[in-house]
Design goal:
By secondary structure, the protein is an alpha/beta fold. It is 31% helix and 23% strand. It contains six helices and seven strands. The protein is globular. The protein starts with a helix and ends in a 6-residue tail after the last helix. Bound molecules: guanosine-5'-diphosphate.
Length: 218
Amino acid sequence: MSAAAGLFHSARFATSVAESVQLNAAELAMLPEVAFVGRSNAGKSSAINTLTQQRQLAFASKTPGRTQLLNFFALSRRLATGRSEAVAYLVDLPGYGFAKVDDATRIRWDQLVGGYLQSRRMLVGVVLVMDARRPLLGADEELIGWLAGREDVARLRLHLLLTKADQLGQAEKSRVLRQAEARADTLPMPTSVQIFSSLKKLGVAELQDAVASMLPSA
Ligand code: GDP
């Protein structure tokens, strides 16, 4: 288990935001934020639940009415006094994959998620969750493009999480990892890559370490 496991286990729902213009008015402390993004069904909610060792945490983001929101979860550390203090937020961004959605929904998603990823000042890192059998599709690349356009891109960290690895054989896992690492090498932001499985609990400590290392106080 990672030394950072306790930090993630402390995750608690903090607030939701429906419009990127509301971000500055939201009841959020000025803390570093790590965002989780991915196509719908990529395995993002399962990855957040596995990371935080909480079976239902991110599924709260899937309840009707919360699917098109930015959902913030506070991560806390216990102080010597016994009280705990929030030190960062995990931000669960709405999934993309638009086979079935109308133009208005798509435009709304672009504004909300694009607005957040392009200009949120507290954003220190992004975990891009992808099905290891179908990594780096067009929509994933669009999202990487938003991050790559930021002025502070060299300070931002990107982690490519190739999940559902239990569905791949050993050779296929190595191939997909190499392919994603080759893409990571060409990106303007420091980018790490890993194989993961929520189902088999594969790569959990590696994910905890990767996210913890994005936090300045870690
Ligand atoms: P989200 O839409 O990206 O939040 O995806 P979910 O976490 O809800 O997962 C979508 C589907 O993939 C569900 O049926 C999950 O049970 C399944 N799934 C998620 N993670 C894994 C995994 O590591 N391995 C396998 N085989 N299936 C997974």
